[in-house]
Design a protein that fits this description.
The strands form five sheets. The protein has a five-stranded mixed sheet with strand order 8-7-6-11-12, sandwiched between helices. The chain contains 53 helices and 14 strands. Strand 9 and strand 10 form a beta hairpin. Among the domains are: 72 residues; 50 residues, no CATH class; 198 residues, no CATH class; 144 residues, Serine Threonine Protein Phosphatase 5, Tetratricopeptide repeat (Alpha Horseshoe), CATH 1.25.40.20; 29 residues. Keywords: Coiled coil. This is Ankyrin repeat domain-containing. It holds the Pfam family Ank_2.
């Protein structure tokens, strides 16, 4: 307002009329550097500014009150050049005001904006409305500029651009003003002068805080299944609810965090607000400790999965970010305790289950944990993870209710032939494989004839440099999109070729961690008994004495070995209980102490003398050897005494020995060997009649049972010892009745062994009803011995011993009645082998189980078989040297195929090499006489609409003709006629959940593994094929076919193999989560809550991981395939020549002559089938010991028929 047009003073000492000054324009004052103002203009400007201030500001002077200069400039629409004008105006209106230079604020002035007085505290909303109006105006002006430029109206576009620039500056000033208001309000909220917040604002904030407390209670602590709570959208949902129910707090967060509304790629506005809501949720517990804030619990759980321990969690708890360490552990323990109820609810006894198990090795050897493993045992923990799948049986309900299809094997084992295990005897599987192979051939024909652009010269004339140069210029994708296909080939999709698929979401339950090691027999037996307790599957410790029908003999040694094994299992269980008890006690001591470096150092020298490194272990050797030594010494001493007394001339010698041994009768009865035999059993077995009579005179029990249940009379009959039988009968030894329980009585054994003398002896001594033992037991319990079915509790499970029901045809499945319909356990080859060994050692206890080999591991061994058959013949050189994949070493195909993602690499190598071989064969086929002429192709197109049939039939005919005349051609054909399509079929079976495809793959794997000497997998494939073709009931086979993979999302084509699920979703996460944790109890907690912890991790990582990279497009393998094709053509793999021999192609160039490929690698399937036929009986005898012997009941049933 006080502006004048005072002329500029000249600087002294300078002449005003220099040539330069005359030429230059006269300098202007700094205030009016861009324009000149007259006094009239200055007055008009001052009047206009005062008028605008009167419309905007209601004047009140107060002390210690500030207003931002930028706020007034934005409201008055002033530029930076007008700052001094504004200051002078303020000084004129407010004489007492003072400009604080550093803060750019006007002091002792409090402006009330008239246009905002009507809405009181809604200044923010009004200002935001103005910003939105200005923003819309900017959009329209920008569109106008673009439109003007399009119409070549440059002048109008320039004017619009200037207007746009001015409005943009106003828009930015309004944003700055809004930020200033927020800062002012925040200062008021933070200051002691709380009355500056209106009562309505206070009420609104309190209401929204309470609403947010409700939102942060996610339901994690409720009784219902919390799995629905843990979704990856949990924080996004929290943000949307927060925006809807807490608008004021949301507006504050938006202003604080979103400073720039430009859309960013990573840290978007939504991302910032999600972080802000999460942080605000954590602060709620600082305000109210009783708030059930599940967001804090989520953060605590995710910290635990990353190895956070007690001290770190409690540190976060002290600042209000997480619950206390004990609270988190209590939450995990409560969920773990409820797991048994979950198992019971999801897996009722009338529902079959598929069990999963695998070994997990947790390394604990880091130096900072030295104190722990010095006291807690070994550096490596070998535990077992377990899971259960509730299969979908909706399609087999009719089979499940029929006893024949639910409990009876499809074919009796005695009728199984070697030919039944091959593809030719399975029409459905044979047709499926032929169709799959035809589809694979069509893919090769289409890829070679239509997918490869025409090179500048034939491939055979190109060097490797020329080939690479050409490939670097070729765009295969563009060629596929734009080129016109000369050969019309219709490719059926892989989903169309599947007979069935598994698209329903699989119900999976992760079971508690077992501290047992499933790589040992006793450990596996203990795990199977844990399964039995959890799923109501009986594991009776009875012992079966097998009978050989041909030789008419019983195998008592087998029954004794069963007892010995179960005894070792009992000892093992005792050891594990003691070890777990010691682990718990030491963990409590460690938790009570502090983790100090000095303490760790001092404890390292005192760990060897406390007796804890053995973990209370009492080994089998430590128990049995002294026991057998005492038994042997006592037996020899008493036997010598008996012999001496019998040869003594002293008549009182025998009486003296009897008197002496009578004092030790209790010791004689209790002393037993590893099989549970007494000295009396050994005397009968060794036919030491003198000792037998002596012990009977002493008063030993003639009906004492050894461990497996055999009595001395049983042993005498098994030895066909008529004299010992007479001696025992004279001393009231039992030979039939309830005494023997599930074990065959001596009379039944003698009858089965056709011992006529002993049977006649028993009949002459028949006094079963007068037996003093039976009479005594009947006096104790009148029902004893009357129920015939009680003699054989295992056979009592048979339907014949059960009372008749209303409908004999309807069968109801129960896991407790495990006879016939087994329970599947899935594992790798080692797990299946151990499980089978345990079952063979006691079939009565573990006959409810059948093993299913894992498909993921089988695929890895199929790739190894490919390498073994074709590695030296050129396959390895193609994938390693020609395709430039140096990681594909020999170890990657063998020892390390399941490490470092090698499995994916070797599967890709088999796929690409198979295509390369196939493309090379098609190139040779194209140049042969068998390739259809143009006339034939045109006729086929007119008739069928495509070239599928004519090309496929001609190609197959050419392959067969070449294979008959050229062994080398036949050998190289295997890669794309067997191994490549078989792996493709196997992978599709897993992804689609097609059980028939899976069975086809295993049928083909059997001769491959047999011929290439995969000893363990040969046995595994043999057992598995025999099981699903013959021994399994039809209902069980269909159940496995329909549930042979796990579908986690309910989407078709996204299934994973059963053992792949265990490895990917149980073993690996558990290893990751246990990193940093050193207590067994914590490992069990993590395993019991593995699904929840995984969901918690995903709910955090997905919304808060702003460094997500874009999905990389998988690089096309076609250039590598073309390279491999060129190598095959250059080395004449498919050039037909009679008598040509397939030669080895070493990876490195060697000076020595190349060797022919081994004959073992040629004709793998045919030679493998022959090998299976030759060794069928011995393999069946080895793999199914329970079927090479007939039990007494089966023999009696056969005789009666």
């Amino acid at each position: 307002p006080d502006a004048t047009s005072t002329p500029v003073k000249k600087r002294p000492g300078k002449h005003p009329l220099t040539p330069e000054s005359k030429a230059a324009a006269e300098s202007k004052p700094k205030r009016f550097a861009s324009y000149n103002l007259s006094s009239v203009q200055c007055n008009e400007r001052r009047h206009r500014l005062f008028t605008e201030l009167e419309h905007i500001v209601e004047y009140h002077e107060e002390s210690d009150v500030y207003v931002k200069q930028s706020l007034l400039m934005a409201l008055l629409d002033l530029s930076d050049d007008d700052k001094s004008i504004l200051t002078r105006s303020i000084k004129g209106l407010f004489p007492n005001s003072n400009k604080k230079t550093m803060m750019i604020e006007y002091e002792t002035m409090y402006p009330f904006f008239k246009r905002l007085l009507a809405v009181d505290s809604n200044e923010i909303l009004v200002l935001q409305n103005e910003i939105n109006i200005k923003e819309n105006s900017l959009v329209e002006e920008a569109a106008g500029v673009v439109s003007a430029l399009d119409s070549d109206n440059t002048e109008f576009a320039r004017e619009l651009a200037k207007t746009y620039q001015g409005n943009l500056e106003q828009y930015l000033k309004l944003n700055s003003a809004l930020i200033t208001i927020y800062e002012s309000k925040l200062r008021k909220l933070d200051g002691s002068d709380a009355e500056k917040i209106s009562s309505s604002q206070k009420e609104q904030i309190e209401k929204e805080i309470k609403e947010m407390e409700k939102m942060c209670s996610l339901g994690m602590r409720e009784e219902s299944d919390v799995q629905d709570v843990f979704k990856k959208e949990i924080f996004n949902n929290l943000l949307s609810n927060f925006e809807e129910k807490c608008p004021l707090l949301h507006s504050v967060l938006q202003t604080l965090l979103v400073t720039d509304k430009r859309q960013r790629v990573y840290k978007t506005s939504e991302y910032k607000l999600t972080c802000g809501v999460n942080a605000l949720s954590l602060l709620l517990s600082v305000r109210n400790q009783k708030c059930k804030n599940d967001v804090r619990l989520l953060l605590g759980l995710v910290c635990v999965t990353y190895g956070a321990g007690k001290q770190f969690i409690n540190l976060l708890n002290s600042i209000g970010l997480t619950p206390h360490w004990d609270t988190i552990n209590n939450y995990l323990d409560q969920r773990q305790e409820k797991l048994s109820k979950v198992i019971k609810d999801k897996c009722p006894e009338t529902t079959p289950v598929i069990l999963l198990m695998d070994n997990v090795n947790i390394y604990r050897g880091r130096k900072r944990h030295l104190r722990l493993f010095k006291s807690l045992g070994p550096k490596m923990w070998n535990f077992t993870v377990r899971g259960a799948i509730i299969p979908d049986i909706s399609e087999i309900e009719e089979l499940m209710t029929c006893k024949e299809t639910a409990t009876m094997p499809q074919t009796d084992i005695s009728q199984v032939k070697a030919e039944d295990l091959f593809l030719d005897s399975m029409p459905e599987h044979k047709k499926l494989w032929d169709d799959w192979l035809d589809g694979y051939y069509l893919e090769l024909l289409d890829g070679s004839l239509n997918g490869i652009p025409k090179p500048p010269k034939p491939f055979l004339e190109m060097s490797e440099v020329d080939l690479n140069s050409w490939l670097s210029k070729v765009d295969f994708g563009k060629h596929k999109r734009e080129s016109v296909k000369k050969f019309k080939i219709s490719l059926p999709s892989k989903q169309e070729r599947c007979l069935n698929n598994q698209s329903k979401k699989t119900d999976v339950v992760n079971l508690p961690l077992s501290l047992e090691d499933n790589s040992t027999l006793t450990g596996t037996a203990a795990i199977l008994e844990q399964f039995g307790k959890e799923f109501s599957i009986p594991c009776p410790h009875h012992y079966e004495i097998p009978f050989d029908k041909l030789e008419k003999k019983y195998d008592l040694k087998s029954a004794r070995l069963q007892y010995e094994f179960m005894r070792s299992v009992d000892v093992h269980n005792t050891e594990m209980q003691e070890m777990e008890k010691q682990l718990r006690s030491y963990e409590k001591q460690i938790d009570a102490s502090t983790y100090d470096v000095n303490d760790t150092e001092s404890d390292t020298d005192s760990g060897d003398d406390d007796g804890t490194r053995s973990s209370g272990s009492v080994t089998k050797k430590a128990v049995q050897q002294p026991k057998d030594a005492r038994f042997k010494a006592l037996y020899e001493r008493i036997s010598n005494m008996a012999q001496d007394s019998s040869h003594s001339i002293n008549d009182d010698a025998l009486d003296n020995v009897i008197q002496k041994l009578s004092n030790d009768i209790e010791l004689i009865d209790k002393t037993r060997d590893q099989y549970g035999r007494t000295i009396f059993h050994c005397a009968v077995e060794t036919k030491n009649y003198v000792l037998v009579k002596l012990l009977l005179a002493v008063g030993v029990n003639p009906n004492a049972k050894e461990g497996c249940g055999a009595t001395p009379m049983t042993i005498a009959v098994l030895n066909a010892d008529l004299d010992a039988s007479k001696i025992l009968l004279e001393n009231f030894a039992e030979f039939e009745g309830a005494l023997f329980g599930s074990f065959p009585s001596p009379l039944e054994i003698a009858t089965a062994m056709e011992l006529a003398d002993i049977v006649e002896l028993f009949q002459s001594y028949s006094r079963a009803n007068d037996s003093p033992i039976v009479e005594a037991l009947q006096r104790f319990d009148s029902s004893f011995g009357n129920n015939k079915s009680s003699q054989n509790p295992i056979e009592g499970m048979d339907d014949d011993s059960n009372p008749p029901t209303e409908s004999d045809d309807k069968y109801e499945y129960k896991r407790s009645d495990c006879k016939g319909f087994p329970t599947a356990i899935v594992g790798d080859v080692g797990t299946c082998k151990i499980n089978r060994g345990v079952k063979h050692r006691n079939s009565t206890a573990y006959s409810w189980m059948t093993e299913i080999p894992g498909d993921m591991h089988a695929k890895g061994h199929l790739c190894e078989a490919t390498f073994k058959a074709h590695g030296k013949g050129g396959f390895h050189k193609v994938v390693n040297y020609v395709m430039k994949r140096p990681k594909l070493t020999e170890e990657a195909f063998k020892k390390r195929k399941f490490q470092e993602q090698n499995l994916n690499h070797i599967q890709e190598s088999v796929r690409d090499a198979s295509c390369a071989y196939g493309f090379a064969a098609v190139e040779e086929f194209k140049a042969s006489d068998e390739f259809p002429s143009d006339e034939d192709l045109t006729g086929a197109l007119r008739k069928n609409g495509n070239h599928n049939t004519i090309l496929l039939n001609s190609f197959k005919k050419w392959l067969k003709k070449c294979a008959e005349s050229d062994d080398s051609h036949s050998y190289h054909q295997q890669l794309f006629s067997l191994f490549g399509p078989l792996l493709d079929l196997f992978l599709t079976a897993g992804k689609e959940g097609d059980g028939t495809l899976r069975e086809t793959a295993w049928v083909l794997l059997l001769p491959i593994f047999a011929q290439l000497n995969f000893r363990n997998y040969w046995t595994e494939a043999f057992v598995h094929v025999v099981n699903f073709t013959s021994l399994w009931p039809l209902a069980f086979r269909r159940m496995v076919k329909n549930n042979m993979s796990v579908n986690l999302g309910g989407k078709r084509g996204h299934n994973v193999d059963l053992d792949e699920y265990v490895e990917t979703y149980i073993v690996r996460p558990l290893k990751n989560y246990t990193t940093g944790h050193t207590s067994v109890q914590m490992c069990q907690r993590l395993m019991g809550n593995l699904d929840v912890l995984g969901s918690v991790r995903r709910s955090f990582t997905e919304p808060f991981n702003y460094h997500q990279t874009t999905k990389h497009k998988e690089q096309s393998s076609l250039p590598d395939v073309v390279k491999g094709m060129w190598f095959c053509l250059a080395n004449n793999f498919f050039t037909v020549s009679s008598g040509k021999v397939a030669m080895e192609h070493p990876l490195k160039s060697a000076t020595v002559p190349r060797k022919p490929v081994s004959q073992v690698c040629m004709g793998v399937v045919k030679k493998g089938e022959k090998k299976v036929k030759d060794k069928f009986k011995s393999k069946l005898h080895e793999s199914f010991p329970s079927y090479r012997k007939l039990s007494l009941e089966n023999l009696q049933a056969t005789d009666s028929e």
